[in-house]
Design a protein that fits this description.
There is one protein chain. This protein is α+β, with helices and mostly antiparallel strands and 437 residues long. The protein folds into two domains: 21-229, 2-Layer Sandwich (Cytochrome Bc1 Complex, Chain A, domain 1); 252-434, Metalloenzyme, LuxS/M16 peptidase-like (Cytochrome Bc1 Complex, Chain A, domain 1). It contains 15 helices and eleven strands. The chain has helices spanning 67-74, 87-93, 118-130, 136-155, 162-170, 184-189, 192-202, 218-229, 278-291, 297-305, 337-353, 358-375, 379-391, 398-408, 411-421, and strands spanning 26-29, 35-40, 46-53, 97-102, 107-114, 208-214, 252-258, 265-273, 309-318, 322-331, 427-434. A six-stranded mixed sheet has the order 1-2-6-3-5-4, sandwiched between helices. It has a five-stranded mixed sheet with strand order 7-11-8-10-9, with helices on both faces. A hairpin with a 3-residue loop joins strand 9 (309-318) and strand 10 (322-331). The longest helix is centred in the first third of the chain and has 20 residues, at 136-155. The two termini are 31 Å apart. 44% of the residues are buried. One of its GO terms (molecular function) is metallopeptidase activity. InterPro entries: Metalloenz_LuxS/M16, Pept_M16_N, Peptidase_M16, Peptidase_M16_C. Pfam families: Peptidase_M16 (PF00675), Peptidase_M16_C (PF05193). This is Insulinase family protein.
């Protein structure tokens, strides 16, 4: 789980304006239902093998949170053919690197190897799926690892519980109401057979996508994929439960105390639609307009002109089922937090009643083109995009045409989305501050 800092680094948009290159890919299914996507890129002698599973924190039980993230760690413990503690040694000794990450919606594993080690990468990922060793030693070891991660990245990190503080108010029924890293007492209480059952349910071929991207020969790759993954039995993907949230119709006020902070933070948040919608993309554009860079509206107003905030930001935390739109700021001196939330509302009101200028609109499109190009500027980024667009968006072609969706959003649609989702009666107003004596 990525830590949260004041800058919210994933909001950054880097790079210069370039034209997006068309990404060629091939996709097919193995007889056991595993979906495979291949993307050749011979510009560098490297290859990525990655598998994304459609299992995240939202697939957990309320009294067993943290399971999906726990498996991100547990499945590096070893397999029937890879001794415990040897996974990372094998990767590094063969010139590679590997990692994994988990969200509320999915879990992603990948290796990057010199291209002559493609077979090794495929074998290792097939081992993870087919022959993992899930025993009490591994569970106990990784339980301590996860606890330490939570202490470092959440509990002892300034503003580290911001997502938790917001989620519990945004969602009452949906599993998005808890965090990806979960609660440690839930992991402590879980029995070994619960971990084994979780793996058996969600780590199946029909609930995953395998992506190979980089410098390889297609026919050889297909043969190895069939050799290493073809023998895995087919099992139907688990049915996904659907959770509906009643609309938020009245402003919510809440407080959160954090012993790791000295400055309070004012946060407002709104529930927004699925990341698959055009409206979610319009909200992405609104957040860029409000807070991306020193020329953005909220920064110019609160930091430069009124000097009421040390930092300010806005972002649409998009997810598969719903999203959450955040606006936050740190006050200067004794500035009342209500001054900040009032300014947020005022700037949103302008978006709801006035079309953004043509110049602002062109600037937005340029930034999103830069972001889109940079996200696919190397084979690691392409592999992740291909897996994500297939598994969560159900449209791999978005790897080439999602930018067109952003370009199709008009100034009028930006105004209308702000009017639909960012109203005072739909928001949470959260004062996130120091622990009180």
């Amino acid at each position: 789980m990525k830590k949260i800092g004041l800058a919210f680094a994933f909001l950054g948009i880097l790079g210069s304006t370039t034209m997006a290159q068309k990404i060629e890919f091939e996709e097919y299914d193995l007889p056991n239902g595993l979906h495979v996507i291949l993307h050749q890129d011979h510009s560098a002698p490297v290859v990525v093998t990655s598998v994304m599973y459609h299992v995240g924190a939202k697939d957990e039980q309320p009294d067993r949170t943290g399971f999906a993230h726990f498996f991100e760690h547990l499945l590096f413990e070893g397999t029937e053919n890879i001794d415990r503690g040897e996974w990372f040694k094998i990767v590094s000794s063969n010139g590679g690197k590997n990692n994994a990450n988990t969200s509320d919606d999915r879990t992603y594993y990948y290796e990057v190897f010199p291209s002559n080690n493609l077979e090794l990468g495929l074998w290792m990922e097939s081992e993870r799926l087919m022959h993992p060793v899930i025993n009490q030693i591994g569970v106990d070891t990784q339980n301590e690892v996860v606890k330490e991660e939570k202490r470092l990245r959440v509990d002892n990190q300034p503003y580290g519980n911001l997502l938790k503080a917001v989620k519990k108010h945004m969602f009452k029924n949906h599993p998005y109401r808890w965090t990806t890293i979960g609660e440690m007492e839930h992991l402590d209480a879980a029995k070994l057979d619960e971990f084994q059952a979780f793996f058996k349910k969600f780590y199946v071929t029909t609930n995953a996508v395998l992506v190979v991207a980089g410098d390889f020969q297609t026919e050889q790759a297909k043969k190895w994929i069939a050799d290493y993954f073809g023998a895995i039995p087919k099992q139907e993907a688990p049915a996904k439960k659907q959770f509906e949230e009643a609309p938020i119709t009245q402003e919510i006020h809440a407080n959160w105390e954090d012993p790791n902070v000295q400055l309070p933070m004012m946060v407002t948040a709104y529930r927004t639609p699925s990341m698959k919608t055009k409206e979610a993309r319009a909200l992405d554009m609104i957040s860029t307009l409000l807070s991306d860079g020193k020329s953005s509206r909220l920064y110019k107003r609160l930091v430069d002109t009124e000097k009421k905030a040390l930092d300010v930001g806005a972002f649409n935390f998009s997810q598969e089922d719903y999203g959450t739109y955040f606006i936050y700021a740190l006050p200067v001196g004794e500035t009342p937090l209500t001054d900040l939330s009032d300014a947020f509302a005022d700037e949103i009101k302008k978006l709801q009643t006035e079309l953004i200028s043509e110049r602002e609109y062109e600037k937005l499109l340029n930034k999103f083109e830069n972001q889109f190009v940079n996200s696919n500027s190397n084979v690691e980024g392409v592999a992740h995009s291909l897996a994500t667009y297939y598994l969560l968006y159900k449209d791999v072609n978005l790897v080439n045409n999602e930018l067109d969706l952003y370009r199709s959003i008009t100034r009028e649609e930006i105004r209308d989305v702000a009017k639909k989702y960012l109203n005072p009666n739909q928001r949470l107003v959260l004062e996130y501050g120091p622990e009180k004596n």
